[in-house]
Amino acid sequence: MGGFIASLITGFCTGVGAIPILFIKNLSEKTEDILLGFAAGIMVFAGAYSLIYPCIEQGHNIQATIGILLGAFFMYYLEQKIPEDKVKGNFMFVVANIIHNIPEGFVIGAGYEAEGNNTGILFAIAIGIQNIPEGLIIGNILKNTLNSKYKAILYTSLIGLAEPLSAGIGILTLQYIRVLIPFSMAFAGGSILYVVSNEMIPKCHCRGNEKKATFGFVLGFVVMVIMRGII
Fold first, then answer.
1. Nearest-10 Cα torsion for 165, 198, 130, 44
2. Distance in angstroms (rounded) separating the CA atoms of residues 137 and 27
3. What angle (nearest 5°) sits at the alpha carbon of residue 5, between those of residues 68 and 150?
4. Which one of 82, 88, 112, 118 is most buried, counting C-beta atoms within 10 A?
5. What sections of the protein cross the membrane (predicted)?
C-alpha cells in the first residue's frame, strides 16, 4: 500500500508542475528553452542511469539492448505516422513522458515492496522532482494545443496517473512481472534518448538560447546526480 501511495504522490507532481500556467500568460522562448533543457538533462539521467544502467548492472544486457532499440524505433515509428511537423515534436514529448511514467511506476511499486520503505521513498522523491518541470512543459504544450489552461492541467494530471496505475499493477503482480521489468525499463530509456536527441535538444537550441538551454540541461542532470547520491 505504501508503494502505491508513494507513486500516487509522484504522479500527482506532474499535475502540480502544470499549475503555474494558470498565472503565466505565456512562457517566453528563453524560459521555455531553459526548462526544456532542464527537463532534457533530467530525462537523460533518468533514461541512462535510473532505467537502463540498473538493467545492465543486474546482468540483463540482452533485454537492455533489445529494449533500448525497440524503444527508439517505436518513437521513430510514431513520428513517421504524425504528418504535421508543428505538432510532431510536442506530441512526441508528451508520448515519451507517458511511456516512461509506466516503468517508473513499476519500479516504485516493485522496489518499495522488494527493497524496503527507505529505498522506495527516496526513489519516489527523485521521480517526483523530475516530474514537476516536465509537468510545466507538458501543461504549456497542452494549453497552446487545447486553448484551455484548466483542461491542460487536467490532462497533464491524467498523464501523471500512469505511474500509480502501473505501480499498483507492479505491487499486485510483482512475482509475475519482475521478469519484464528490465525490458520495460530499457524500452522507456530508449524512447527517452530518442526524443531528447531528436526533439528536445534541437528545439531548445534553435532560437538563440542554446547556451542557456545547455546550462539548463547540465543543471537538470546535476539535480538527478544529487538525488541519486541521496538514494
1. 110
2. 9
3. 80
4. 112
5. 6-23, 35-54, 60-78, 90-109, 121-142, 154-174, 180-201, 213-230
Residue 15, amino acid:
G
CA nearest to 103, candidates 3, 173, 175, 181: 181
- Asked if 8 and 124 count as a contact pair (C-beta separation under 8 A), the reply is no
Number of domains in the chain: 1
pLDDT tens sequence across 30-73: 888 898 898 889 888 878 887 788 889 888 999 999 989 998 89
* Residue written as grid cell 546526480: 225
CA distance 157 to 110: 23
| pTM, entire model | 0.73
Q: What is the DSSP string of 75-143?
A: HHHHHHH---HHHHHHHHHHHHHHHHHHHHHHHHHHHHHHH-HHHHHHHHHHHHHHHHHHHHHHHHHHH
Residue 24 to residue 137: CA distance in whole angstroms: 12
Identify the domain containing residue 150 by its residue range: 2-230
**Burial code of 106-137, b = ≥16 C-beta within 10 A, e = fewer?**
bbbbbbbbeeeeeebbbbbbbbbbbbbbbbbb
CB < 8 Å & 24+ apart, contacts of 83-91: 87/145, 88/199, 89/199, 89/203, 90/141, 90/145
The C-alpha cell of 85 is what?
Answer: 511537423
Q: What is the pLDDT of residues 111-150, one digit of tens each?
A: 555 544 555 566 677 677 777 877 887 888 788 777 888 8
Cell 502501473 belongs to residue: 166
